[in-house]
Amino acid sequence: MQLKFISVMVDDQSKALKFYTEVLGFEKMSDLPFGEYRWLTVTAPDGMAGVELVLEPMAFEPARVFQKALFDAGVPATAFISTDIHAEFARLKAAGVAFRGEPAVMGSVTVVLFEDTCGNLINLVQPA
């Protein structure tokens, strides 16, 4: 068994694609019509080969409620790993990414939350 697709709910697929590719530096993998939405995936250039992040449209009202509840509670939708969190933080902050604080050591990891402009908090994590 292996992971292939990981989903993150987004409020606007076009806005999400722009943020994840132009700001975070991910690469578009798939962009196919899927009814009124799209099957839209990106991949991290230095991530595990074959693993794609699905920019999932929120076409289901309970998904909107769940996403907002997570966001309002400060709970990240997912986490991305960094090998140099301070450099990544500086690069993304300079690109206008909204962070919820500064990188902080929490046990064996350094973490910082940021907003993805699509209704999600993402935890940026650097293992020790």
TrEMBL record:
> Where does the secretion signal sit in this chain?
none
Residues forming the VOC domain are 2-127
Q: Which InterPro entries match?
A: Glyas_Bleomycin-R_OHBP_Dase (IPR029068), Glyas_Fos-R_dOase_dom (IPR004360), VOC_core (IPR037523)
One matching Pfam family: Glyoxalase
What SUPFAM superfamilies does the database record attribute to this sequence? Glyoxalase/Bleomycin resistance protein/Dihydroxybiphenyl dioxygenase (SSF54593)
Q: Which PANTHER family match?
A: GLYOXALASE/BLEOMYCIN RESISTANCE PROTEIN/DIOXYGENASE, GLYOXALASE_BLEOMYCIN RESISTANCE PROTEIN_DIOXYGENASE
Name of the protein in its database record: VOC family protein
What broad taxonomic lineage does this protein's source fall under? Answer: Bacteria, Pseudomonadati, Gemmatimonadota, Gemmatimonadia, Gemmatimonadales
